[in-house]
């Protein structure tokens, strides 16, 4: 880790050094992600747990999956499950994940790849390590982000974007002390390949020990910084932040992230996910795998799923599809 890098950061496009009078975003809150298990039992950190949903909009949910080094026979995924009303963004840093859905979509993502799935009107979906990886074991580390869709787009047909690691926009901080990978959106002219229904930016940055990066950020976007590994700080006030913590930032023109001079041996750098988007500001009714605008729409999604209207899996009887969900949960 990281899978996508550049041998010489000094030759990459540079972000412009912040103006002395630029308004840097101050930290609103820092929360620590609780740890749990997802799917068939792979470990996750719930990055948004305990955060006011209005500060996350247009984002709904994010899990850091792993980092875990599986022994042979241990790798796990998810069983078949439904989605409707939002997009899932699965970013794999280390390891391999196979995806398949009831519409015939899917594929394999590995080592810096991203799969952007617009669930839209609904589908059944499965994510699992390939059989050869289950047999062999190995390192697994990634993220899954849920991005809300505005009401007008919740009934779009399901759609995939397979973004290869080599396609992400690469740049460096103004002094080349940080490597910036833009997966979606644009940061100071560095563009990511992800096409989004909701205007947003998603960045994976690696900050060298003792270095500091300042990213220009759209003033109409919110701003979130999640630390996947390492120790450092956020904001000009240098608010400490460490592995598994999320910083929510206030209004401003720039985002500042710095790495402590000394990092722990397993991860010699600070790695962060930086997110921002244009808030949708619509009512949210969320239960299980459905994110809609009203409770009635969520109940309809459960009913449609149970009737097989979100799709069926030819090789798996519908009754065995995971998630005979209770809409009251």
From TrEMBL:
Q: How is the cofactor bound?
A: Binds 1 Fe cation per subunit.
The record, for InterPro entries, names: Pirin, Pirin_C_dom, Pirin_N_dom, RmlC-like_jellyroll, RmlC_Cupin_sf
Q: Does Iron count among this protein's keywords?
A: yes
Ligand binding (Fe cation): 81, 83, 125, 127
Cofactor(s) it depends on: Fe cation
Record-annotated Pirin C-terminal domain positions: 202-310
A Pfam family matched in the record: Pirin_C
- Where does the sequence pass through the membrane? none
Q: Which GO terms describe its molecular function?
A: metal ion binding
Domain of life from the UniProt record:
Bacteria
- Annotated coiled-coil positions are none
Q: Which UniProt keywords apply?
A: Iron, Metal-binding
Domain Pirin N-terminal, residue spans: 44-147
Q: Which family does it belong to?
A: Belongs to the pirin family.
What protein is this chain from? Pirin family protein
Source organism per entry reads Aeromicrobium terrae
